[in-house]
Design goal:
A hairpin with a 5-residue loop joins strand 22 and strand 23 (476-481). Strands 6-5-7-8-9 form a 5-stranded parallel β-sheet, sandwiched between helices. A 5-stranded mixed β-sheet has the order 14-15-16-17-18, with helices on one face. The chain has 21 helices and 32 strands. The chain folds into 3 domains: 15-219, Rossmann fold; 293-364 and 366-481, 3-Layer(aba) Sandwich (Rossmann fold), CATH 3.40.50; 486-668, GMP Synthetase, Chain A, domain 3 (2-Layer Sandwich), CATH 3.30.300.
């Protein structure tokens, strides 16, 4: 069945003095004129929040753009940006766009070889690096990237003795820009005027789950119109605040922390470091927030761990009022009718539990919060919403500038992703694939016409590769990647990502990989969450020396087995997936790691790589072995290699006998 939601909107492009504001640099100049005194961006440095107004940001971008021009940076050139979320990196994006060039943000935790591929493929001429760490990686690969001419560094710490002809401090570029601007009055304005909405605004590289990353070319219109439509839908304005902490190379950060800030005129805030994000979140108290499900899962895990260590009276009060929240919190948030007694109890819970907890997490001022990227556990989703926090889900991808399907206020359910946004058409093909046509559909994959043709039709439909359907309420429900949906030998549907997400709903399971296509049954690899399981073990006086030691303990296997069997109970109630219950599993000897090639930088599973690397373990799960020896190479954070030797246990899980009238009755696999 195909459903389409189409909205024909008036032109949302703002104008000033007859000029069309169809690029982000033009919007910057507009904001500087309209709200120049208001804060545009903050950064926490040395424990103090530093702020820049829209007028100051305009000047900084002007000087940086003129400095780049003075160094020879020209229209259509590529500028790489590598580092944590920093004002000068965001200004670098706008400065490049002001000159008609194309910014290429890169993942700050990428190893040198990964950086070399993107730098070379994107034909990068200039790069702005946050600090010494990123400079070192760039210098390491510079000989392999012949077009890279200049490496501009922001933080001078550790750089005093560096002597390389390609290195230059951003402060020097800024000073050259001021001199260039004085010598060439009108240059910056002329470059701005030459840009238009159909120009390429940015290249964002995909995570590369099945091969080398692809460079997604997005125009200003792609990003700007999509961001503006979402701003309109949620009523965002220039008084909102957002914390910019996600990788700048990810399309989510580019839209939520950059494009929507320019669309609405609100302020973005850069934390001091990755280690201080939660502290900075509490200090700032943003009104608009985005986080992938893993962040919400980690927050809930932290809350539950702390409550286990709290005094008896606090634990009792917490659990009592959370039960009240579970009963009526969602209905109150959605504006439904609730008895005065329940509303009174909920109000007392807000005073004693909900508001103090939200304040501790930094969520006291949240008006709108989103999650996307993976399915979020229903219990986790309901927990935050029951506190009165308006958390919603959305669906999109890099190739559609993210925002294509979003949940509306009052129409939020944990198992769907909402309804199409303004100007978005959605259709479901006969094979079940979800396809979009909207302003956000990308221009092309950079230097990859074959991939572009396979992903986008001539009339503008983007082929997502995801399987899904519209439910009876008109909400979109995503099942899995269409290519990953398979069949067991008995014909039962196998949706690996769906199963993995259900496993990851449990706080003790950090990552999971399932197998079953063309097999007699489903099997799973499990990564435990070291923090959650470690705390659980310590409360039971179970000693362990590290992840590998903890993962092999019988008590931990018993704990994870209960989680797996609960998933099987849930699957038994689903007529589509009841045949894909998990019959065997093992707990991996190490955490799956992007540095080992097992996950992408956005923590998506590289299935093909894992299937090849752990072929012996997969085979052992299907041949009835109870143990399997492993000898594996691992990569440490500093790049050193090491080896892990372990004897893994392989366990059977109980599955629900679906034909039995008692759906809770279990039988042993095999």
């Amino acid at each position: 069945m195909s459903r389409q939601a189409v909205a024909v909107a008036p032109d949302l492009v703002a104008t000033t003095g007859g000029e069309i504001l169809d690029t982000f640099p033009k919007l910057l100049v507009h904001h500087a004129a309209v709200r120049g005194h208001r804060t545009a961006i903050r950064e926490k440095e040395w424990g103090i929040w530093q702020a820049w107004t829209w007028a100051q940001v305009r000047d900084e971008v002007r000087w940086l753009a003129c400095g780049l021009a003075d160094l020879g940076f020209r229209r259509c050139d590529k500028l790489a940006l590598i580092g944590d979320n920093r004002p000068r990196l965001y200004w670098g994006i706008t400065a490049a766009q002001a000159l008609g060039a194309v910014p290429v943000p890169m993942y700050q935790d990428a190893v040198a070889d990964e950086m070399a591929f993107v730098l070379d493929h994107a034909e990068v001429r200039f790069a702005i690096a946050e600090d010494q760490e990123q400079v070192d990686k760039l210098l390491l690969v510079k000989d392999r990237v012949p077009k890279l001419e200049w490496i501009i560094f922001d933080d001078p710490r550790g750089m005093r003795k560096y002597r390389h002809p390609a290195l230059i401090a951003v402060d020097e570029v800024r000073a050259r820009g001021q001199a260039f601007a004085r010598a060439n009055p009108g240059f910056f304005e002329g470059e701005l005027a030459a840009g238009k909405g159909s120009d390429t605004s940015i290249i964002l590289y995909t995570s590369g789950t099945t091969g080398q990353p692809k460079g997604v070319m997005l125009s200003y219109d792609n990003v700007r119109i999509t961001a503006a439509n979402a701003v309109e839908r949620d009523g965002l304005n220039d008084s909102d605040e957002v914390l910019a902490y996600l990788p700048m190379a990810w399309v989510g950060d580019h839209v939520f922390s950059y494009a929507q800030a320019y669309a609405a005129g609100f302020a973005i805030n850069c934390p001091e470091s990755g280690a201080t994000v939660m502290t900075d979140l509490r200090e700032l108290g943003p009104t608009y927030f985005f986080a992938p499900p893993r962040i919400y899962e980690n927050l809930l895990t932290t809350v539950m761990i702390r409550m286990e260590d709290a005094a008896w009276i606090k634990r009792k009060m917490f659990h009592y009022f959370m039960e009240v929240a579970r009963r009526v919190g969602l209905r109150i948030l959605d504006g439904e009718t609730v008895s005065w007694q329940e509303r009174l109890l909920y109000g007392l819970g807000r005073l004693l539990v909900y508001e103090p907890l939200k304040n501790t997490l930094g969520f006291s001022r949240i008006r709108v919060a989103y999650t996307a990227g993976e399915a979020i556990g229903p219990d986790i989703f309901r927990f935050f919403r029951s506190l009165g926090m308006n958390v919603k889900q959305l669906y999109g991808m890099t190739e559609t500038a993210v925002l294509v399907v979003m949940q509306k206020n009052g129409e939020v359910r944990p198992d769907t992703v909402g309804t199409p946004c303004k100007d978005v058409e959605v259709r479901i093909t006969e094979t079940g694939e979800v396809q979009f046509r909207c302003p956000g559909v990308f221009q092309a994959y950079f230097k990859n016409p074959e991939a572009t043709q396979s992903a986008k039709t001539e009339d503008g439909w983007f082929l997502t590769g995801d399987a899904g359907y519209f439910d009876d309420d008109g909400d979109l429900k995503i099942i899995d990647r269409a290519k990953d949906v398979g069949r067991l030998n008995d014909g039962a549907m196998f949706a690996p990502k769906y199963l993995e997400n259900k496993l990851k709903f449990f706080p003790f399971i950090k990552e999971a990989v399932t197998f079953g296509d063309g097999r007699d049954h489903v099997a799973a690899f499990i990564n435990i969450d070291l923090t959650a399981v470690g705390n659980w073990a310590e409360r039971r006086n179970l000693a362990y020396s590290g992840y590998t030691d903890l993962a092999r303990r019988q008590e931990v296997y018993d704990l994870i087995q209960k989680n797996v069997e609960q998933v099987n109970r849930d699957l038994a109630a689903d007529r589509h997936l009841s045949g894909s219950q998990i019959k065997r599993f093992l707990i991996l000897h190490k955490e799956l790691d992007p540095d080992d090639g097992e996950l992408t930088r956005t923590r998506k599973v590289r299935r093909r790589f894992i299937a090849e690397r752990y072929a012996d373990l997969i085979e052992a799960l299907y041949t009835g072995q109870s143990n399997c020896q492993v000898d594996a190479e691992v990569t440490f954070e500093d790049g050193r290699k090491g080896r892990i030797h372990a004897d893994l246990e392989l366990r059977d899980a109980a599955v629900v006998e679906v034909a039995n009238r008692d759906p809770g009755r279990l039988r042993k696999a095999g």
